[in-house]
């Protein structure tokens, strides 16, 4: 009986996995989800054991699930009034969003924490959030009603929750805003001072559209070769600049303002997601978009500050999150897909960092109701 059960377990694992070799090592396989994450870092077909231990160095990182296990303390020497926005649906696995709020109350002293979610979602942890509202004056909860149209890939949901949170941040007289998501968490201490010092050190070069400071973004999904693709997982800046970034109409209405758009794209670049948000902001502050890599990188140089996810010890509780570097490192590519802080810093000194090669420009095609990247 036990032997039969073992055989069934092996069969199930085998069918849900990708067999790498038809040889004596046929049972050395990589489960599908793990393989897709590994391939983003190092394209391999040698099997789990060979890949992890014989050909590569295997490293790992542990992060506490609960805020009570993070003993780190922070300070705010700049003494600037800051609000942190967590927008999106509440993540109930491991009480992730709730524990993130508790952690931020610890890591960001004297900072307003604004959770902007959906009314139906807030019911899931109503009692816990209610206690926070009663006993912590720095925590604020916004319960939104969803719009009738969610927009392409639910972009309208993000716009609504973020705009309402920024509105509250203004009422709280906050000077700077850190916009994040409910499925993303920061573990690094003393970040308030770090962000403010970055903005003070790297002032905007071109005062177009009255941009007061740069906007800080992460390298996590800020693509190097996809035009105007500034990641929106984290954005930090002066409240006036962040307010302009998100002061846009819903997708179906806003997309009509773009000229030369065909099948939802300009120069084979889909006007969706982070590209949609970034280009709207740039047009609003008076920048004429040229739709080429040189223009995109000059805008990164002059109007943004791209930092590494490691600088803030960021954790994105999504997709195959165990592969910590899957979006940031790929040793099988000539050029990494994301912009790193080192790239951005080189741009400040106009150094040639091999980014103006138009052959590397990411191009897409319309497939059904979505866009697919063209791989050469």
Oligomer: single chain
Q: Helix coverage percent of residues?
A: 25-40%
Mean pLDDT across the residues is 83
Largest sheet: 7 strands, mixed
> Order of helices and strands, N to C?
HEEHHEHEHHEHEEHEEHHEEHHEEHEE
Helix/strand-derived category reads: alpha/beta
Strand order of the biggest β-sheet: 5-4-3-6-9-8-12
**Uncertain residue ranges:** 10-28
Strand content: 15-25%
Number of helices: 13
**CA-atom Rg in angstroms:** 22 Å
- Please report the distance between the alpha carbons of the first and last residues: 52 Å
- Shape descriptor reads globular
Number of strands: 15
How would you portray this structure in words?
- The protein is α/β, with parallel strands linked by helices and 376 residues long.
- The chain is 34% helix and 16% strand.
- The protein has 13 helices and 15 strands.
- It has a seven-stranded mixed sheet with strand order 5-4-3-6-9-8-12, sandwiched between helices.
- The longest helix is centred in the middle third of the chain and has 17 residues.
Quick rundown:
This protein has 376 residues and is α/β, with parallel strands linked by helices. 34% of the residues lie in helices and 16% in strands.
